[in-house]
Structure formats: C-alpha cells, structure tokens
Amino acid sequence: MTDDRLKVKEVAALIGVPVPTIRSWEKRYGWPDPSRTQGGHRRYGPAEVEQLQALRDEISKGRSARRAVVLLQQLALRRRHEYVDRIVRAAAAMDQEAVMHALAGVTATLSVEEAVEGVVIPALREIGRDWEQGRCSVAGEHLATGHMKQWLGALLERYRPQSPKGAILLSTGPADYHSLALEAFALLLARRNWNPIVLGAITPVASLLEAATTLEPRAVVVVSHMAATRRPSVDSLKAVASLEGVGIFYAGNAFAPIRSRRGVPGAYLGADMTAAAGFIDRTANGQPASM
Ligand code: B12
Prior knowledge:
Layout: H1 8-15, H2 19-29, E1 35-36, E2 42-43, H3 46-60, H4 65-93, H5 96-109, H6 112-132, H7 138-159, E3 167-172, H8 180-191, E4 195-200, H9 205-215, E5 219-223, H10 230-241, E6 247-251, E7 267-268, H11 273-284
Parallel strand pairs: 3-4, 3-5, 5-6, 6-7
Antiparallel strand pairs: 1-2
Helix pairs in contact: 3-4, 3-5, 4-5, 4-6, 4-7, 5-7, 6-7, 6-8, 7-8, 9-10
The protein binds cobalamin.
C-alpha cells in the first residue's frame, strides 16, 4: 500500500486553512499531532484531517481555539468509549459487519495512538473478560480479533515509513499465540519512522536468532502474555542478548510481576504502549533514556 497521507500544504488547500494557522494550532494545543517523515515533514492521515476540519468548524461558530480543542478532546474520549463498546457488543453478537464498521470509524476519526491505546487494547481486554464470564463465545472472540488483526496489518502498511531509521524485530515468545498487542505496537513504531518486522506468534528461539542475525535490526522486542509461556520467551531473549548493537526489550503480562523479570536480559517496557514506543525510539537512536 502506498502512503496516502497528505502534506501540510495539501491539507491547507483541502480544508481552506492557511499553513501557519495549522502549525500554530499544533504548537499551542498539540491538536492534531500528525506523524512525520524521517526528514521531519508532517504527514496527515484521515483522522488528523478530520480533527483539523472539526477545529476549523468550532472556531467558525465563535469558540476560542483553546475551548474548541478541549471540546474536541472530550468528544474523542467519548468516541473511543463508543468504539470499544461497539466492538465488544459486535463480538458477543458475532456481527462481522458491525466490527468492520466500527474499525472503519476508528481509522477515519482517531489518531493511531488513540486507536491503539484507546480502542484496540481496551476492546481486547473487555472481549477477554466477556469470554471468561461466558458473555462472548470463542467464535465471537475469534471473529472480532481476526478482523482487528487484518485491520492492524492494513494500517501498518499505510504507516510503514519509506526511509526508516532502521528495523525493529517484534516477536512473541515461542509458546505464545497472543500476537495482537505486538501488531498494535508495530504501528506505534512505524509512526516514529522505524521499520517494524513482525515475526508474530510462536516464533522458535532459533528462528528469532536467525532473523536477528540476518536482518540486523536495531532492536528486538519479545512479548509474552501468560506466566505459563514466560520461560521459553526468556530463552528467546537470552538467545539475542549477546548480539552487538541490538537493543533488547520485553513486555506483556507474563512479566508484570517484578520477580518475573529477575535475570531476564533487556529492558522491560511496561504497560503504556505509547511510552514504550517512545522509549525504544530514544534508546535505539543512541540517546540515554529511562522508562
Ligand atoms: C485475543 C486472545 C487470544 C487469541 C490471540 C490471537 C492473537 N493473534 O493475538 C487466541 C484465540 C489465539 C488466544 C489463545 C489463548 N488464550 Co487468549 N486471549 C486473547 C485476549 C482476548 C486478548 C489478548 C491480547 O492481545 N491482549 C493484549 C492486551 C489487551 O493485554 P493486557 O493484559 O491488557 O496488556 C497490557 C500489558 O500486559 C501490556 N502489554 C501487553 N502486550 C504488550 C506488548 C508491548 C509491546 C507492550 C509495550 C506492552 C504490552 O500492555 C497492555 C496494556 O496495558 C486476552 C484477554 C486479555 N485480557 O488480554 C485472552 C487471554 C490472554 N487468553 C487467555 C488464555 C487462557 C488463552 C488460551 C490458553 C486459551 C486456550 N484454552 O486455548 C490460549 C493460549 C495459547 C497460547 N499458548 O498462547 C487468558 C490468559 C490467562 C492468563 N493470565 O494466564 C486471557 C487473559 C483471557 C482470560 N480472561 O482468561 N487468545
């Protein structure tokens, strides 16, 4: 898929707002916050264009820019809750079209960070809870998470940078089927101009090592979701830990308890995905960083 995001000049022409005004809204209010090319040029996706149009319209109704941004942020928060709700209900009802509709709405109205942290992760958690409590069948869960996987893949191709800072290898542990959080995380790295290479679920230790040796990534991230699958994922981390110039990171609920991280090589990324992407960005770029 080609990059169909717009340059600031193109957005300005499209919505009839001068470039300096768009820049000043971003500088003062951080709204919207477009992705950038490696050269630092802004690129606007459909969500950012919509955010700008909405801000323009609110100001034209007589609101101050500051008040308009607060209002739009509240609206975005409400929208995120609504999308989560729609996806979770659609999963329980096994309603494929409703899942697809909700995801299309997310792409059109929310930034990648809002989509990942505000919709994808909470929806996965709630679907898991519903499944556990018998409110969502295995089929409903598979149907919804399958669509989320396809949707994340399509978005990743849209955001994959043309001249990336380097490659980052992403893998689950060798016994872990839970790859979705990793796929969502790949999107956040692509937004920061890294080239994420997602090896995905149940990657054997030897395969991860071979990929890390051949593809020469700047960092490797291993994720494991369950205590039962933690041990083999530590083997993966140990296998790549000795590679020179490669940052080693790990995440997931298997590593949430502090004692589970004892003796594990690499840096634990925590639960906040946006912060984790920023941390890897700074560290893999050679800047001293702390989480
Ligand atoms: C989708 C799903 C599946 C799909 C996965 C599809 C895929 N390609 O990913 C399938 C159907 C394959 C599956 C299989 C299984 N699953 Co499942 N699954 C889920 C579900 C609904 C979402 C998983 C997910 O992506 N979570 C990601 C986020 C939502 O998890 P989180 O805990 O909030 O993560 C936070 C942090 O840990 C951290 N984090 C997590 N990942 C990452 C990654 C990065 C890079 C960073 C920075 C941070 C980070 O940040 C998050 C945000 O705060 C969860 C429910 C849940 N609560 O997670 C169950 C869940 C994880 N599954 C569970 C189980 C039991 C299984 C199975 C054993 C079921 C079975 N009987 O076969 C198998 C396991 C197979 C295996 N060996 O791995 C349990 C695990 C219980 C436990 N703690 O041990 C859960 C919690 C469901 C439940 N409520 O019981 N599953």
